[in-house]
Batch of 4 targets.
Target 1
Amino acid sequence: MSHGIKGDGTLAFGYNFDWQSRVFFAPEGTPTIVPTAFASQAFREAMDVFEDPAHATSVQQIARFVATSLNRCVDTDEQVCFSYTPLDTSCIYNASLLAAECLMRSDEPGHKLLATKAMNLVVARQREDGAWGYGDGASQGWVDNFHTAYVVLSIRRIGDELGWTDTAYRSYERGVGYWLSNFFLESGAPKYYDAETNPIDIHSAAVAVSTLAEINEVKMARKVAAWTCRNMLDTDGFFYYRVNGALVDETPHMRWGQAWMAYALARLLEFGSGE
């Protein structure tokens, strides 16, 4: 669960519980970029459908939160990296790009430039083989499925919204190529890490399906969705948390699994309806 946190002309969202990440601790109610960015996306889509000025206001208020309340662990003429919360100074690539997505939806001068600069940093941090580590820290070099998908999708959205440079588009294509080549088995099973299959996590599956559908890899999205429904869907209608070889953790986590799979299958229906 998350709840809105209003400031001086700003809006953000945080969890209603203490949250410990691998990098920092966020007390209950701390605004964090992940739920805030998802709220921005929801308000933008609602604005387009319902034409309600209140939704447009929320989109603008969230963009102002990103621009004024998040720390910038990198801030140069060409690049910027936004923190995860107002309390930390971490440089986590997918989180900074989610902040950029909030900014790209804004009508305020300068916000779109900040979004482009955030994308520039992540493009510059891409490895030669096309992969991205989790972040800039010495202990953040691992490469996993769903964070790679987040990065690929954010770059696609920002490029489509604000315009592509040759460098950004080549980075996007290399990232998609690495992701497709290293994170899926022939069966459609989504690997957790690029070099390790297990554990197969429901979040990896869900984010893969939704991302693949949105970037027009619909055939692969259907393949991953089919594998997930065959292997991780209980007869009672919920999705299991993880499959690790012969061991199955059937815990039905609501936010991590159920909500994300509902979103993923809806996105597949939306983007795959024409094929």
Note: The chain has a mean pLDDT of 94.
Target 2
Amino acid sequence: MTKTTSKKIKGNKDDAMHFIDFYDTDFFGIVDNENKKTTSKTVSLIVPIDDDTTQKNKSNLAEHKVPQIEDFTDTEAVINSILQLRNSVLIHKTNGIYNDSVKKEIQQIQLICNGGSSHNVFRSMTRESRDIVFEKYMVPLMVMPGDTHEKEITIDDHSTFCKKLDVTMMSTAYLDTYFPEGKGKNPDRKKQIEKMREFIYRQYFQEF
């Protein structure tokens, strides 16, 4: 008896004229919202979970991702980023004092302006705002108002500007210019100084 073997034919791959490539769901117009990856860039900012505690350990910290500002001409995207920053991050970082709120908000906006042209635009906007406020409200406080070197150092950086404003003395004559109703009535100068600083911070933020 002769043993016969059968040869399995796998087919001729060279004749496959209609090989179909893999197509993802986008090709067929199917949107998978659960698995669809976002293309927008975000900046991770750390916020405390419990506002009432003084604990600063990692268990009390959470990460919130705020959309990065890349182009200030995209108004809707800029507003969305700033609103998320205010509602989810700044609410945990401010203490209700207006001056501190301005400092922190501008610092946090700077953190999300780190893509595209936004960094340079942000720096230019804030510097111009400090320049306007410095000339209008702080030059009268300077001992040497014509010192351009001091001015350049002050307006070049947000933190330096805030420190300068916080420590610069305000004379009685200066305060009486903005609070004329207090002349000769023994006003609370400390309170006037606080109100004047807050007013300058408001002008700074408004210009920005």
Note: The two ends are 100 Å apart (CA to CA).
Target 3
Amino acid sequence: MKNVPRFLFMLIFCSTLVSCTQGKDKIMSDYLEKPEEVHIFTVPANSLAREVIDSRPPIIRGFPFISTQPVTNNKGKFPPEFYTLALKEFRSESLQQVDFWSLKKNPNLYDVIYIKPMLLGEFKVKGKNLLENIAYTYNISADQLIILDNWVQNGGILWIESAIYISLYDYKFNKFSDKELESFLTKLNGMSLYDRKLNVHMLRAKKTDDIHVEGISQEIVASASGTFGDIREINEKIRTLLLEQSDYIGIYLSVAATPIIKNGDKVYASYVESGKGKVITLPPFDFVKTSHDGELFRLTLLSWALNNNK
């Protein structure tokens, strides 16, 4: 290479570079000119997650207070026509989400206000009035509670799924000895709801270790009082109800007024009238299992309440 003239070396190098560059350009040109293979897949619109149509009856989609369990996968026990006939349209809201100041201006804002069960760690005891204690628990003021009471008086339905659970995971549990539990039950027995005493009973599960229990599944054969007979005539009779408890202790409350569901000497569900309205107490019966009548019970009970206000 030392003997090759500089200009000749440059000529050879440039020719090689041009040849290589032209070769690459040709490959890229061939690649770009080659028709692209496009695969088209046809996907039905109703198979897309956002396009899936919820075919469940509206009552099933819009009945959030029937249990602590999620309503998401509940398809209902009956054909769609049943729900259309069983219950008229209604407006409901959780006590925690109620717009009290709008309710004061418009008493027809809601047909039903509901209260779900709670854990012991959530429940705050301030006095002997159950509703005042619940209001205190949810940071509802005395003025807002007056609005709620006036709403009931004017025909509102206050629906209370009245249970207090003690879970092994509850942060208050470790502070609760059997003596303290008895003291808490005594306090509950001394409380009232709309000037009526409370029926209180407790179910205790068996502990398998420090963090697990054997769940309780109690079947209740419905034995309604005479005043509840007209509700059963709306649809078929309520036969059995299922009370399931996955927590260690379940404390169930009902107002000592007109019984709805009794089993022996225990009142599980009841109601008290206040003005034109009603306050209904019931435990969170299972509503998904079609071998029991938890769903039908709630539907007939709510239909009766909505259609029998004074």
Note: The chain has one domain: 61-307.
Target 4
Amino acid sequence: MGEQPQIVVVGAGAIGMSLSGWISPNYGNLSLLAIGESLRVIKERGLKSYAKGKREVTVAMPLRAIGSMSEVESPDIVVISVKNYDLDSTSRDLKRQLCDHEPVVVALQNGVSNQQILPKYFARVVYGVVCYNAWRDAPGEVGHERQGYIILGTPANDLQDEMLEIKRIFDLGIRCVITDRLQDAAHCKLVVNLANPLMTLVGAERRPIESYGILAKMALALYKEGIELLQAAGFHEHSLGPVPSWRFLRLGARLPAFLLTPVLRLNAGRLGMNSMAQDVFGGRSNTELEELNGYMLGLARKTGFPTPINETVYDVARERFGPGFRPISETELWTRIKERVRAAKSGQNAIPRH
């Protein structure tokens, strides 16, 4: 790589736009690969970005948007921010456009299935664990909860020089760290992502929540179950920066609902819509349910560890996600969870084999 590596961010979704928007004002050699209306809008008036709760102070910033890799000569770093369900087709198309050129690829997906997909197409892949929430409001417009935090790593702890260079550039706009424990970091993020279908199912950000106490109990019980599953599978806690620690989440799971209500109410205003909810409410047929909750259920089958809470959330999401989706009340969902937990304790429940 030269002094100013050529970077292309692939995907004008929430993560691709927010990352590009934070870095590009301080780094001139970055382009965002977009298509359709996103490409047209960003080319015409730049990228609009705002912090949660401050949409009235949306900032418009210039950003180089391209429609094809042919518009950039031999990119050094390609950041792929599309979701897992689009990753294989996107990677295949990028490989075709890049021909024999081999850039360093930075993968920014939830879960770990990208570790099976990307090596089929690219020789040098760095994986990023994204520890912030962002959402796409419209083509070329993105909101975010906080300024980004990304953990970089590789399964074999190689590509150290490449990761240092990527970190140097990312640090111009976000907080970036390098880990030698990628699998721990990625799996810890999976625990946090377990709540994505839960919050989507109850329509958080889309309908009035009747009981924040019940919603908090469900989320914290889901986190606690996920933490215990990871420990049973041999994984260890890894700091995710601003994300609460395992100790904090476990403590919260032991608190009564009435104590949790004011905490969740206080935070509800700054927690933007998660990526799964963006897909479901946006009318998409694909979600990351299998890559996130489904993967954890597979891990539960391998270890024999019971996960009745995740099973319930997963099953209800499979039932309800799709065209014409309507949220379920947190009370009804909590009732179904408690029934599954009771059945598991009595030995009547088995982990589903979807």
Note: The mean pLDDT is 90.
